[in-house]
Amino acid sequence: MHQFRVVASGLRFPEGPVALPDGTVLVVEIERQTLSQVSTDGRVSVVAQLGGGPNGAAIGPDGRCYVCNNGGFAWREDENGLHSIGQPDDYSGGRIEIVALQTGAVERLLDRSDRHQLRGPNDLVFDREGGLWFTDVGKNRASDRDHGAVCYVPSGGFEAVEVIHPMVQPNGIGLSRDEKTLYIAETITGRVWTFDLEGPGRVARKPYPSPNGGALLVGLPGYQLFDSLALDSAGNICVATLHNGGITVISPEGNVIRHIEVADPVTTNICFGGPELRTAFITCSSSGKLLAMEWPCPGLPLNWLNK
Fold first, then answer.
1. pTM
2. Domain count for the chain
């Protein structure tokens, strides 16, 4: 059994954790529509009110917090907790926003790719050049669904280039230590894909029968869906897993090493922080908790946050 510590509770569908060097943790609260900060004693304070559906967060080269905003969800709350159920009537459009942590000031970076309006930006990662990769999961409606995509914003840029398309609800995203491999988790297929990178924002596409130019790293059996991910220093891909709630740890070769069970079927995200990045922070979205546990090895440092 793994020992978890409850860092905070009462959160409104937390995701996108960012463990800051001062010991506090940023989270988005999607249903509350905020970027929030959890102090070391568990107190939660609002950094910025964003509207829509803030979904993923990362610290950029300028020290500000970049947020994927999916434009909002419709919600259902029952005895099993809080659940997102598709595009709401007041959908406000997908966008990437920037929050100044000291003041809470919000700036919109962009709301389009070079192809079309963003639908549901979900998760993001910065490369060592300062470029921004992000997933656009799309949007679900009663009778149809938008295709997903992966976009890249060059360092200092204001335009997103759609690099990988189509994908089926691309969600979690991460870079290998040498930044030669991009990892993407698809939610509804329960798959993790790898993409060979030729340079910042450039993918060496694999030919047919690859449906998206990537290579399939792993697909889980049964009804297990993937959400966001983080890499540890051993190169393992640690993917938040839905329904079979927990973290699935996958080797770079595509072997499932272990599944760490979490008592929330909507376990959505993981990040690393604390001394030597040995603490894993895990968001339990339907129950509204942020958990912490000691990890067997350090997390992989993130550009512009940990180094």
1. 0.97
2. 1
